[in-house]
Amino acid sequence: MSTTPTPPHHEPDSPRDLVGIGIGPFNLSLAALAQPLTELDAVFYDQRPAFDWHPGLLIEGARVQVPFLADLVTLADPTSPWSFLNYLRTRERLFPFYFAERFHIQRAEYDAYCRWVADSLPGLRFGHQVDAVRWNPERDVFEVDFTQLDADGEAEALGRTYTRNIVLGVGTEPYVPDPLKPLVDAAGVPVLHAADYLAHRDRLRAADHVTVIGTGQSGAEVFLDLLRARPAGREGLHWLGRTPAFAPMEYSRLGLEHFTPDYTRYFHALAEGARDRLTAGQWQLHKGIDADTIAAIHDELYRRSLDGGWPDVRLTPGVRVRTAGRLAATKVELHLEHTEQNSRSRLTTDAVVLATGYRERPLDRVLAGLDPYLRRDSRERPRVDDRFRLVMDPSVTGSLHVQNAERHTHGVGAPDLGLAAWRSATILNSLTGKTPYPLPTRTAFTTFGLEPQPRVPAARQEPAVLTPLVEGC
């Protein structure tokens, strides 16, 4: 690996060029691509003690649903020392990976790769909780107030930093439907979100009957993991969800072009109403189930039917939970409604796993001090421009970019790992006013809309000239 450049010296009261809030994969991508830009004074804060990525769902064998090239940096800079392939090289695992012939890596391996980057990069401040962000018009800078936390998560010291620009990457949080919130918060019968699955797996495996709610990828992985651990004929599993089918995720080659910069630009240029209508109908682009996982579930169920019996398993799509409550001291009663039959029933179970997905973490708390400056759409959502900047009053001369908080303006690719490096490069190009990361003008064969897309001329048959992707590298 190349030597890490020394970060610029920072005077405590002088404004930084960039403060990142949150250190998930997206801001970690930004930090990795910002690291060689030595003229950029940047720091990133996260309240967690260290990096982790969905630790409750790192089930053995579960794979990331994007190819390994969708790491933190490669699709913007394949020469970066922070690529997944370089991670393998430093671990002396390139040849085993080569012979494994795996385009999609395991989640646990992706998490380990990200932790390797996070442990190596300068400028990351874990254990720092950002409390407030304000605009200081006298100094033309943002003020960022934070609390430094000790190893137990208790407040240790207060601090403030000044910055010309901010990138928010606070990520998502587990979504719990309203009828089940009282049960999740109560002690006793295990009703938990899939985000906490591994921490409670032994208890769930010991339960006589378990219900998994949610028909997406995490629901499928939890259901399969529980199924494999239970004795044939006494599985005691019920898997249900609102979608009309246990549907595969769209993974055709042209379907995947919805996760390209071309589609992102097309979506952003649409009218607000058109964007909202599109978003509502695109669930199978990102909420379906990987075909390999569906096949593994069917194989496991088929194997258990070889003796002529049927496994004690029910799979019921098209169902929503109306209400839920405790039954005696050790059970949960779910009141269900089938949306197509317009019928209702009750289900008694010993444990519930909510694979009900994640929602964008609200920005209102951290951005309360900027509310007078923010421009919003007709549904009071922040407006976001084509360079991922919140649209603000012209008196605010700094920029505030967002990552994975712009699905309403940029479409289904907002939470997708495959667009992380491109978005980070777009933000850094905007912040520096240069082009440290040249980006392609066209990325899809599909032409989205009737407006012609820019054509990329075919390469001329001339001697190749090797030029560095990042100036000075």
Describe this structure in words.
By secondary structure, the chain is of the alpha/beta class. Helix content is 24%, strand content 20%. The chain contains 13 helices and 18 strands. The chain has helices at 25-34, 84-90, 94-100, 107-120, 181-185, 201-206, 217-229, 261-269, 272-281, 283-286, 291-303, 407-410, 420-432; strands at 18-21, 42-46, 124-126, 128-136, 141-149, 155-163, 165-168, 172-174, 191-193, 210-213, 237-240, 313-316, 319-327, 331-338, 343-349, 351-354, 358-360, 399-402. The strands form 5 sheets. It has a 5-stranded parallel sheet with strand order 3-2-1-7-18, covered by helices on one side. The chain has a 5-stranded parallel sheet with strand order 9-16-10-11-12. A hairpin with a 5-residue loop joins strand 5 and strand 6 (155-163). Helix 7 (217-229) runs parallel beside helix 11. The longest helix has 14 residues, at 107-120.
Indicate the low-confidence ranges by residue numbers: 456-473
Give the class from helix and strand content and strand pairing.
Answer: alpha/beta
Q: What is the helix fraction of residues, given as a range? A: 10-25%
Strand content: 15-25%
Name the strands of the widest sheet in spatial order: 3-2-1-7-18
Report, as a whole number of angstroms, the end-to-end distance.
13 Å
The biggest beta sheet reads:
5 strands, parallel
> If you average the pLDDT, what whole number results?
92
Can you count the beta strands?
18
Task: State the oligomer.
Answer: single chain
What's the number of helices? 13
Cα gyration radius (Å):
24 Å
3D shape = globular
